[in-house]
Amino acid sequence: MVEHLSIGRWNYGQQAENYRVYCRIEFWRTLVRTAVCLIQTNIQAMNLYLDTYMLKFNKLALLSVCMLLNGCTSTELFLVNSLARLGDYTVIEELAYNDHEINRLNLYLPANPKQNSGTVVFFYGGCWGGCLTLDKQNYQFVAQALTAKGYRVIIPDYRHHPEVKFDAMMQDIAQSVIWTHEHIAEYGGDPQRIFLMGHSAGAHMAALLTLNEQYLPADVHISIKGFIGLAGPYDFLPFTEAYQPIIFGPPERYAASQPINYVNGNEAPLLLLFGRNDRTVKPSNVASLKARVQNAGGCVETHEYHDLDHVELLSALTVPFQNQEEVYRDIVDFLNYYSNSPAKCRT
């Protein structure tokens, strides 16, 4: 069971009405799929909850498909992570990695650390603040999935639009990686084995940290052993949303926001995951970055999931879906391989 060493806080933002409509439409489809997954998943701790909470889990465990990014109540968001709280790990909450009150992170320690395993720093998305405001507490299921495989996990909060522009966001997430490098040894981790991972806008920012060496000190950047991007935008000029020029401006800074512009072939290995049904981030982002890295002689692999969309790709890490989709397996295989600092790319 999870051991909590401190109490976290919750923040939720106003969501767009069209996402609420989508959430209602998706309800019946995900309800049936979730019921099947719950029946097929053999987890002893889950069985303790089935009699009392079955109806809530049927509705909510995989309604994370729309809840995580499409506004619902705080109670529902809490229940989305109920299964994750049954995991066997310790969470240390609200560790300060910089001076601003938002600059806090949660550290998740596995009960059975994997030998030579790395630490995964996960950055959540949300249009850089342009479409919603969630916080690290909503992504506990990501930590559960990775600690179950012996990896330490860090999930930081960071400032976002409209309070700050993009440079300040990058300063925040860069500082969270610096904190990881400086302090993870205190928790049994290896500061030379750090993986960056993100979803959507979080994948974009993590990709920039991986590809643009200017964001991190040299000794920290070299400790990045791999990047995992779920549905990330890496090559998305010209902008298509009204908030994007505000976040990434002025115009002379637009090119600096594109991860593809920093590929040199010497970057850490990249794992790029995307769903064929994604209508939020175009698949061309993955195709462009893959081609650029391959042409430069770097390590990159991509996986396309035919039945998943932008949010379902991340929801595949929730307990009911972990054994139903290949996303979880592909991530763990990548981590296991590159944690050992191999001399060649994985094929």
Write up what this structure looks like.
The chain is of the alpha/beta class and 347 residues long. 37% of the residues lie in helices and 15% in strands. β8, α10 (284-296) and β9 (300-305) form a beta-alpha-beta unit. α1 runs antiparallel to α2. Residues 6-76 have low confidence and may be disordered.
Query: How are the strands of the biggest sheet laid out side by side?
Result: 1-2-3-5-4-6-7-8-9
SS field, number of helical segments: 12
**Share of residues in helices:** 25-40%
Major sheet details: 9 strands, mixed
Total number of beta strands: 9
Q: Could you give the order of the helices and strands? A: EHHHHEEEHEHEHHEHEHEHH
Low-confidence stretches: 6-76
Structural class: alpha/beta
- Tell me the fraction of residues in β-strands, as a range: 5-15%
Mean pLDDT: 83
- Shape descriptor reads globular
The span between the termini is 36 Å
Give a brief description.
The chain is of the alpha/beta class and 347 residues long.
Structural key phrases:
347 residues; alpha/beta; 9 strands; 37% helix; globular
Walk me through the topology.
Elements: E1 3-4, H1 17-40, H2 44-60, H3 64-67, H4 74-80, E2 89-96, E3 104-110, E4 119-123, H5 140-147, E5 152-156, H6 166-183, E6 194-199, H7 201-211, H8 218-221, E7 224-230, H9 243-248, E8 270-275, H10 284-296, E9 300-305, H11 310-315, H12 327-338
Parallel strand pairs: 1-2, 4-5, 4-6, 6-7, 7-8, 8-9
Antiparallel strand pairs: 2-3, 3-5
Helix pairs in contact: 1-2
